[in-house]
C-alpha cells in the first residue's frame, strides 16, 4: 500500500537521552516528519540513521538513483558534532526530494513513525526504536538467537548496549540491533573504545531472564542458558581471525 509523500528535516537541537538516571553514550537528533498535512518529531541516534539507510536501499532504492551517501561508522568520523549534523541535514534534504508515495518499506515507515496510510504511528516509549543505550559495541562472534527474546547478529555489526549487569550476576547483556531489542552473550561483542562508566558496573539493575517471554512449554525447544557457551563456540569459526584471536588471548 502506498502512503502520501513524506518530508523530513533535521531540527536545530540535539539532546542526550538518559536511562536509569545516567547519561547515554548516544547523541540523539530531532527529526521533523511531515506527512498528509501533519507533522511530528522523532528522536533518532546516528546509528538509527545508518539503519534507515540500510533498509531504504534494501527495500526501495538503488543507490545510483537515490544519490544518498552511505553513512560511515560513527567512530570513523573525526568530528562527531557539527560535521555529522551537516551530513544528516544533507541526507534528509535529499531523501525528502525522492520520498514520494512509493515508500512502502515497513522498517523505514516505522523509523518515521508513519503507518501504511500515512498517519502518525504512535510508538510506545519503551519500544525498541526509542530505548536509549549506555554503550556501543562491535560484534566479534556471530550469534544466532536461540529464543524469541534474543538478538541475532553477524561479525562486524554494531549493537547498542542497553543493560550491562555485573559479570558475577550474568554474562548476558541486553541491547538494540537495528529495530530489535533482545538479549545476547556479552562475549560475542567488544565495546567500542572499551569505555564503560564506572558507576554502571555495580549499579545497573539486573535485567529480566532472557527467557522471560517464553511459555514454560517452550523451554524444551531451546538449550539451557548454562549450556549456551558451546553454541557460541560453534559459531566462532565465522569471526574475523584477528578479532577472534584478540578475544581469546
According to CATH, the homologous superfamily of the largest domain is Phox-like domain
On the 0-100 scale, what is the average pLDDT?
A: 72
Main β-sheet, spatial strand arrangement: 7-6-5-4-8
Number of helices: 7
What is the share of helical residues?
Answer: 10-25%
Overall 3D form: globular
**In the residues, how many domains can be counted?**
2
Please tally the β strands and state the result: 8
CATH fold annotation of the largest domain? PX Domain
- The topology string of helices and strands comes to EEEHHHHEEEEEHHH
The secondary structure category is alpha+beta
Going by CATH, the architecture of the largest domain would be 2-Layer Sandwich
In percent terms, what proportion of residues is strand? Answer: 15-25%
**How far is the first residue's CA from the last residue's CA?**
52 Å
Low-confidence runs: 19-24, 195-249
User: What gyration radius follows from the Cα positions, in whole Å?
Assistant: 19 Å
CATH class call of the largest domain: Alpha Beta
What is the makeup of the main sheet? 5 strands, antiparallel
GO molecular function, one term: GTPase activator activity
Pfam family, one: SH3_2
Protein name: Rho GTPase-activating protein 32
InterPro entries: PX-Rho_GAP, PX_dom_sf, SH3-like_dom_sf, SH3_domain
Description:
The strands form two sheets. The chain has a five-stranded antiparallel beta sheet with strand order 7-6-5-4-8, with no helix packed on it. Helix content is 25%, strand content 25%. It has helices spanning 46-59, 63-66, 82-98, 106-112, 200-203, 228-235, 241-248; strands at 6-19, 22-35, 38-45, 135-139, 158-163, 172-177, 180-185, 189-191. The protein is α+β, with helices and mostly antiparallel strands and 249 residues long. Keywords: GTPase activation, SH3 domain. InterPro entries: PX-Rho_GAP (IPR051576), PX_dom_sf (IPR036871), SH3-like_dom_sf (IPR036028), SH3_domain (IPR001452). Residues 132-194 form the SH3 domain. GO terms for molecular function: GTPase activator activity; phosphatidylinositol binding.
Amino acid at each position: 500500500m502506498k502512503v502520501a509523500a513524506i518530508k523530513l528535516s533535521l531540527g536545530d537541537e540535539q539532546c542526550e537521552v538518559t536511562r536509569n538516571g545516567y547519561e547515554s553514550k548516544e547523541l540523539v537528533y530531532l527529526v521533523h516528519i511531515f506527512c498528509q498535512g501533519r507533522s511530528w518529531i522523532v528522536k533518532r541516534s546516528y546509528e538509527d540513521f545508518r539503519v534507515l539507510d540500510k533498509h531504504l536501499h534494501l527495500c526501495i532504492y538503488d543507490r545510483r538513483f537515490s544519490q544518498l551517501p552511505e553513512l560511515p561508522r560513527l567512530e570513523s568520523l573525526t568530528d562527531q558534532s557539527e560535521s555529522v549534523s551537516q551530513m544528516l541535514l544533507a541526507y534528509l534534504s535529499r531523501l525528502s526530494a525522492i520520498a514520494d508515495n512509493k515508500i512502502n518499506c515497513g522498517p523505514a515507515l516505522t523509523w518515521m513513525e508513519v503507518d501504511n496510510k500515512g498517519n502518525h504511528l504512535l510508538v510506545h516509549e519503551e519500544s525498541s526504536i526509542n530505548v536509549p543505550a549506555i554503550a556501543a559495541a562491535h560484534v566479534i562472534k556471530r550469534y544466532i538467537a536461540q529464543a524469541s527474546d534474543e538478538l541475532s547478529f553477524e561479525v562486524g555489526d554494531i549493537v547498542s548496549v542497553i543493560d550491562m549487569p555485573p559479570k558475577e550476576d550474568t554474562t548476558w547483556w541486553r541491547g538494540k540491533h537495528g529495530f530489535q531489542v533482545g538479549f545476547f552473550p556479552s562475549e560475542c561483542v567488544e565495546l567500542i573504545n572499551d569505555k564503560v562508566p564506572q558507576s554502571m558496573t555495580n549499579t545497573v539493575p539486573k535485567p529480566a531472564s532472557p527467557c522471560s517471554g517464553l511459555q514454560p512449554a517452550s523451554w524444551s525447544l531451546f538449550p539451557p542458558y548454562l549450556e549456551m557457551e558451546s553454541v557460541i563456540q560453534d559459531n566462532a569459526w565465522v569471526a574475523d581471525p584477528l578479532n577472534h584471536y584478540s578475544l581469546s588471548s
